[in-house]
Amino acid sequence: MKLKLFAASVAFAAFATVGAMAAMMPPFGSGDDISYAKSLWQKMEAKGLNSTPANLYVGGPPHGKVREIVESTIDGNRVIIKRNYRGKDMTVAKVAANRAKYLVSVTVMLKRKGFDPQDADWFWVKYTPNGTIMKNKKKMSLAGKIAKGKPIGCIACHAGAPKGSFVFSHKKGDVVFVK
Ligand code: HEC
Questions:
Q1: DSSP 3-state assignment of 129?
Q2: What are phi and psi of 120, to 5 degrees?
Q3: Distance CA 164, CA 60 (A)
Q4: Which secondary structure element, helix H or strand E, spans residue 32, and what is its range?
Q5: Mean of pLDDT values over 46-70
Q6: Which H or E run includes 105?
Q7: Residue 73 has pLDDT above 60, yes or no
Q8: CA 154 to centroid of ligand 1, rounded, Å
Q9: 169 within ligand 1 shell (Cβ under 6 A)
Q10: Which pLDDT value is given to residue 9?
């Protein structure tokens, strides 16, 4: 009897600890987020999306000064890929002449049904030019619900896009669509 009670309390303690840990877990950069983002990059490569040029244009912060956006689908899910270019005295012409030289990051949003219903179900990720998942100052991998609940970051800023879509580029004619 005593033993049973002990076992039950151990089980409860373990359960409570797991619950508390889950509550403390940041909303992004988990093992699942990382493996999802890794396979996403491979699929972007396989579909040639990383090598499909789009219309280069100049835009405001925080994304690179010169940028381009490719939109497509992966496994039936809408994906929007933005390549960000930075450098001294940036111009569209400079980037057009040598994209690889100025590419600093690739920011991606992929619609993942049920992933984050509160914020339009986008999965967010920021890669280096060769597909490595970037980290923030706290060494957290930038993949998943990036900075959800925080006043700055992908979700907070994109929440300002029209009609709760979290997508700004709609208005522009810059996006290149790949079937
Ligand atoms: C401070 C605001 C801000 C933050 C933070 C931000 N973005 Fe954006 N993002 C924008 C704006 C504004 C655009 C519109 C495109 C333009 O002006 O060139 C954009 C465009 C995009 C696009 C192209 C689709 C669209 O909405 O137009 C993607 C993909 C994207 N951002 C991904 C990300 C990811 C991933 C992060 C986080 C790592 C992030 N963004 C952080 C403001 C932000």
A1: coil
A2: 65, 20
A3: 21
A4: helix 31-46
A5: 90
A6: strand 103-111
A7: yes
A8: 7
A9: yes
A10: 57
CA of 158 relative to ligand 1 center, distance in Å: 6
Average pLDDT over residues 152-160: 95
| Three-state DSSP class for residue 172 | coil
Q: Which residues of 134-166 are buried (b: 16+ CB within 10 A; e: fewer)?
A: eeeeeebbbbbbbbbeeeebbbeebeeeeeeeb
pTM of the full structure: 0.88
CA separation, residue 92 to residues 82, 100, 129 (Å) = 15, 13, 18
CA–centroid distance, 63 to ligand 1, in Å, is: 7
Structure tokens at 1: 């009897």
Scan for tokens 């690739």, then name that residue: 106
Contacts of 141 (CB under 8 A, 6+ apart): 28, 29, 33, 34, 37, 133, 134, 135
Residue 70 and residue 175: Cα distance in Å, rounded? 6
Q: ∠ CA 89-48-124 to the nearest 5 degrees?
A: 70
User: What domains sit in the chain, N to C, each tagged with a CATH number?
Assistant: 28-177 (3.50.70)
